[in-house]
Amino acid sequence: MTVTPLGIPRRLLEFTIDGEEVRAPEGATVLDACRAAGKEVPTLCQGDTLTPKNACRVCVVGVEGARTLVPACSRRAEPGMVVRTDTERARHSRKIVLELLASSVDLSTTPEVAGWLKEYEAKPDRFGPDAARLNDGPQIDNDLYVRDYDKCVLCYKCVDACGDQWQNTFAISVAGRGFDARIAVEHDAPLTDSACVYCGNCIEVCPTGALSFRSEFDMRAAGTWDESKQTETTTVCAYCGVGCNLTLHVQDNEIVKVTSPHDNPVTHGNLCIKGRFGYQHVQNRDR
């Protein structure tokens, strides 16, 4: 007989969100509670497998008694807390943040942003054509993935995934200040000369497409990338005995990329280079 451990039950906290009484487990964030209650709060830097960094500030909400708006992704729920997600102040803050981001960063491949810009009536163009952009272009220095820092919002998720939260490779970090800040390897050396092990876990957590599979990048450039035609099949990696789960994204009977379920207790969304990129043998029909 298989026994499933239940773990230590967590106390439920009672508080209100937009006038509605809600309950959330002790330790849950305001963002967790909002999502459980069906309240949509936009966020870019929050990742379900990473510690919140409070970098993007898009998820700010009002909390009664707080002097400033608070980031919902990291603020823990408290008994009796009164949260307001749709105040004029919160909406104005999100509008400004979205305008600043969209004026300086290419958000064309960022999911949901187009809808948020419309919802909050954000007008990034009001800053003019001289708004700061890197204009570096995509960096294509390997056959596995592409870095396009013109799309980077400096959410730190890739740094955390590469660092002490998951991979412990520490190949990348943030270099520079202000508009010169960017993700870089040690001494700003080429990626091929760095400690990168090409696990691709940074791609898994990137919210904007600044990091993408080479296959996806090439297909987008050719105009053939179409997520509406893609199917997803979860299976088990056959390279070793760990049992990592893989989600195969297939378009036109070809695997176009591989991800991993974030709720899987073995991988939590992370893979090695073989699991994430070693799928070509499956569809090499010449051998």
Automatic annotation (TrEMBL):
Signal peptide: none annotated. Residues 230-286 form the 4Fe-4S Mo/W bis-MGD-type domain. The keyword Nuclease does not apply. SUPFAM superfamilies: 2Fe-2S ferredoxin-like (SSF54292), 4Fe-4S ferredoxins (SSF54862), Formate dehydrogenase/DMSO reductase, domains 1-3 (SSF53706). It comes from the Bacteria. The keyword Chloroplast does not apply. Keywords: 4Fe-4S, Iron, Iron-sulfur, Metal-binding. Residues 143-162, 188-216 form the 4Fe-4S ferredoxin-type domain. Residues 11-89 form the 2Fe-2S ferredoxin-type domain. This is 2Fe-2S iron-sulfur cluster-binding protein. It comes from Streptomyces flavalbus.
